[in-house]
Structures are given as structure tokens and as C-alpha cells.
Amino acid sequence: LKRNEGAQLDQNLVRRFVQLLGILVRNAKLLELMLPPTSGKLLAVDVASSGMDETVAVEYSGGRVRVVWTNMGADTMATAGYMAKWKADNPEGIMVIDYVGLGRGAYDRLREQNISVIGFGGGESARRKNLYANKRAEAWWLTRSALENSQIDLDPEDMELSAQLSLPKWTTRSSGQIVVESKDDMRKRGVSSPDRADAVTMAIYYAGKIGHRTVRPTNDIVRSAIERMGLRF
User: Fold this and answer.
1) What pLDDT band is residue 56 in, cutting at 50, 70 and 90?
2) Would you say 15 and 21 are in contact if contact means Cβ atoms under 8 Å apart?
3) What is the DSSP code (8-state) at residue 218?
4) In what order do the strands lie in the sheet with 64-72?
5) pLDDT (tens digit, 9 = 90+) per residue, 124-162?
6) Which residues are CB-neighbours of 70 under 8 A, at least 6 positions away?
7) How far from the centroid of its chain's Cα atoms is residue 127's Cα?
8) What is the pLDDT of residues 158-181, one digit of tens each?
9) What is the Cα Rg of the chain in Å?
10) How far apart are CA 120 and CA 131, in angstroms?
């Protein structure tokens, strides 16, 4: 995540920060996590907000993250149908969907069929409200921490996901809360919606529901991997 404080950042520092993100993502793509036979599964779905975006379903199990289904455009019934089938195939699995905007249609359809699904709203309150401005910021920060600690196994062939993981900028409020750039703000600066990356962050956010834990970010950002490389913001 690129930090934006409204001031011109030193370009060499920005370059080193992006290099760090590249290293973290490459490590995750090379990582081969050994999964126990009984590992639980979680499906996280980010629903396209327009016909130009991509609806993405990501499956998470024991730290291994894979895109298992995509659909161009916002066909909520197709999304609900895929999720219903996945749940039938994985009755013990957990499903999460971004239910803000068009995703609400798929969420409501699943609930109508009495299919268990968790709704994720990026603007909702974070678990640790003192550290994060909202749930989106917390989910992205948990993902960053998991990358730093080699807890995510990414698909080495998914170059688009790798790129999207470094797209959003971040800043802090006067209270110290971390804020991650919204999709709308990203579009304003000409950056496409990071649909795949958002699905991954939702999966990491709810990993504890299937018994998997990622390292909890420290309260002191200075102790992050960025700081350990000597970067200062």
C-alpha cells in the first residue's frame, strides 16, 4: 500500500517501498504451504460494480489463496448461483460476499434460499476501531501483515492479482487510524478496481472462522517490514 499524505514523497523512497511490495508478493507466489487433509475452506466474493469490472470468487484454505471463478459484469444471479453450488459442494465451508451496492442482490438471494453467507461492508466499523478507519482498511492491513509473515500462498500464474495488491494508497487520520483508498477514489485517479485483491483481503479478514490465523498487526507501525528496511514516512 502506497502512503499518501498529500505531500510530494521522495521518489527514491517510493521506489524502494514498491520494491518491498514486489518482494512480498513474489515470496507469496513461491510459497508452498502444506495443508492438513481436514483444512476448512472459505469462499470470498467481490462483486463487480459495473459492466467493466470483474466479479471474483477466491477460495482460501490454510493460507493458500486461489481465484476459482470470475465473471465480467455485475450478474448478481449468476454470482448467487455459483455461490449456492459451492456451498452445496462444501457444506462446512464459510462464504463471504461484498454486499454493498450490486452485491446486495446476490446476498439477498442466498439468504432467501436459507444459504448461510456473511456480508462484508468495507465502510463498516473495524474490529479494532482505534487502529483502522473502517473494515476495508483493517482487511487490507491484515493482508499486508500476512504477506510480510509469509502466511499467504498466491498463485504464481496470477499476475493480475499480484499487480492489484500494490494499487491502493493509504494514509492516516489525525487520530492515528489507518485509511485505505476507496475504489471510487482509485477510479478518480484512473486506476481500475482491484477486484481480485479485494476478494483476497475479505478472505484473510475472515480466516479465523475456519480456524486459521494470520499474524495480528502490531500497534506500532514502526515495527513493520517497511520500517525494518529503513524506510521512514
Assistant:
1) very high
2) no
3) P
4) 64-72, 54-61, 42-46, 94-98, 118-120
5) 999 999 999 999 999 999 999 898 888 899 998 999 999
6) 54, 55, 56, 57
7) 16
8) 999 999 998 888 898 988 899 999
9) 17
10) 19
Of 61, 60, 81, 58, which Cα lies nearest the Cα of 70?
58
For the chain, give the percent of residues with pLDDT over 70. Answer: 75
Single-letter amino acid, residue 72: M
| Cα dihedral 49/116/92/140 (nearest 10) | 40
Structure-block grid coordinates of residue 206: 475472515
User: Phi/psi at 123 (nearest 5 deg)?
Assistant: -85, 0
C-alpha cell at 11: 521518489
Chain CA centroid to CA 27, Å: 17
Q: In the numeric block, which cell numbers belong to residue 149? A: 509473515
What type of residue is 80? A
Question: Looking at this protein, which amino acid is placed at residue 15?
Answer: R
